[in-house]
Amino acid sequence: MATPTDDDRTLLTVIAHMKALPGKEQELRSELEKLVEPTLAEDGCVNYDLHVAVDDPGTFFFYENWTSPGHLEAHLANSHLVEFAGKLDEYLQGGADGLVITQLQRIR
């Protein structure tokens, strides 16, 4: 099965990882699901895939690809992301520090 970087190795891949506070798993999931549609409509967004850990329904990942670092920066400044960021303390273990964002570049 093909991935976005099969055709374009210059894409910026992002993995965002977070774990819900105990009892907040469903609320966090709902908030994350609300981010998908507006993000997919953003310039430079190739894909924005939400995942949940098979063995832990409170652990979530976004697998994203962006056409440039500038598009990712614009995404992070969009109102739906800024609004979500304001709620991190009520949903995530570790609050804002509980959101781990890793930027990757495919090499093979």
Automatic annotation (TrEMBL):
It comes from the Bacteria. GO terms for molecular function: monooxygenase activity. Pfam families: ABM. Coiled coil: none annotated. Gene3D superfamilies: 3.30.70.100. Residues 12-100 form the ABM domain. Keywords: Monooxygenase, Oxidoreductase. This is Quinol monooxygenase.
